[in-house]
């Protein structure tokens, strides 16, 4: 009997579910995550998304092989544990999500941080193919990161390496200092995420928001390049869909790194696969 896989991209704003056959996405479903509604409701929504995918006509007569989950939060991949989440309700932590879903659907479940999945997906199937040293970042409600060095994803002790959104950065912030979802001030995502952009656009205008956020993002990228020396940085998330911002980021990055010749060949590009990178990467 032919097999199919399911992949979920669970963000703070929306959840995207996909049916995947032979590394090709053949069906997408999108729903609000309702991330502020509490642990029980969020888990029920995840389970319902999977049930809805299984019920699709595209998989009639096929057998479910596995489920991949990319989730915006701190994930212990080895133990299948959601350690914590910054932009979800405060009780959505210390959850053995892999076990919950495996017990429910009786198939293997892979769980990882969403941007690690994004980085894996772009490296295998997208614009990162052929590169061995990659940084992936997504800019949405928060900022997430994935690090690939010599073709290996860096995980750190608890699989939380790449929490770039909580680097400290003073940047070019011109409004009131925004408190991050984690409760701290001067986090990278509090001055450079899509959420930060919206606050700036409301306070000033879109052009000024583009200028400030691009400047702050370039500072963050330069810091990451000095530490990790990637060949390519792949940017994703709804903020990067604005072409004007991407152009400004590249210009700011070149200006800020002009005294560092070892960084001049670093490529900064937008995702090729978009959110599909997370979905495909969750199954790797």
CATH superfamily of the largest domain: ATPase, nucleotide binding domain
Q: Helical percent range?
A: 25-40%
CATH C-level of the largest domain? Alpha Beta
- Structural classification: alpha/beta
Largest sheet: 5 strands, mixed
Identify the CATH architecture of the largest domain. Answer: 2-Layer Sandwich
Oligomer: single chain
Mean pLDDT reading = 93
Q: What is the succession of H and E elements?
A: EEEHEEEHEHEEEHHHEHEH
End-to-end Cα distance: 22 Å
Number of domains: 2
Q: Give the uncertain stretches in residue-range form.
A: none
> How would you describe the shape?
globular
In CATH, the topology of the largest domain is named Nucleotidyltransferase, domain 5
Q: What radius of gyration results from the CA coordinates?
A: 19 Å
* Beta-strand segment tally: 12
Number of helices: 8
**Biggest sheet strand line-up:** 3-2-1-4-7
The proportion of residues in beta strands is: 15-25%
Protein name: ROK family protein
Family: Belongs to the ROK (NagC/XylR) family.
InterPro entries: ATPase_NBD (IPR043129), ROK (IPR000600)
Pfam family, one: ROK
Written description of the protein model:
Pfam families: ROK (PF00480). The structure is a single chain. The model has no long low-confidence stretch (mean pLDDT 93). A hairpin with a 3-residue loop joins strand 1 and strand 2. Helix 5 runs antiparallel to helix 6 and helix 6 crosses helix 7. This protein has 2 domains: 114 residues, Nucleotidyltransferase, domain 5; 148 residues, ATPase, nucleotide binding domain (Nucleotidyltransferase, domain 5). Strands 3-2-1-4-7 form a 5-stranded mixed sheet. The protein has a 5-stranded mixed sheet with strand order 10-9-8-11-12, sandwiched between helices. Strands 5-6 form a two-stranded antiparallel ribbon. It is α/β, with parallel strands linked by helices and 284 residues long.
């Amino acid at each position: 009997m032919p097999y199919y896989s399911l992949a979920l991209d669970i963000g703070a704003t929306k959840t995207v579910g996909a049916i995947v056959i032979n590394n090709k996405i053949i069906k997408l479903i999108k729903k609000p995550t309702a991330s502020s509604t509490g642990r029980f409701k969020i888990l029920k929504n995840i389970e319902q998304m999977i049930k809805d995918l299984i019920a699709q006509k595209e998989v009639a007569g096929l057998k479910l092989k596995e489920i991949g989950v990319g989730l915006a939060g701190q994930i212990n991949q080895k133990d299948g544990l959601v350690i914590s989440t910054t932009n979800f309700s405060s009780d959505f932590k210390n959850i053995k999500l892999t076990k919950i879903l495996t017990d429910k659907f009786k198939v293997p479940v892979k769980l990882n941080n969403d941007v690690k999945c994004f980085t894996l997906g772009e490296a295998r199937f997208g614009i990162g193919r052929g590169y061995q040293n990659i940084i992936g970042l997504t800019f949405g409600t928060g900022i997430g990161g994935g690090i690939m060095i010599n073709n290996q994803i860096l995980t750190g002790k608890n699989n939380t390496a790449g929490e770039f959104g909580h680097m400290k950065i003073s940047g070019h912030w011109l409004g009131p200092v925004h408190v991050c979802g984690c409760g701290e001030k001067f986090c990278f995502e509090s001055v450079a995420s899509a959420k930060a952009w919206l606050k700036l656009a409301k306070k000033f205008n879109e052009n000024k928001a583009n200028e400030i956020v691009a400047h702050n993002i370039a500072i963050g990228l330069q810091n990451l390049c000095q530490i990790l020396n990637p060949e390519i940085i792949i940017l994703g998330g709804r903020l990067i869909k604005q072409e004007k911002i991407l152009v400004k980021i590249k210009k700011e990055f070149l200006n800020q790194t002009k005294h560092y010749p070892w960084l001049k060949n670093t490529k900064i590009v937008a995702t090729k696969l978009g959110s599909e990178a997370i979905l495909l990467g969750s199954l790797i």
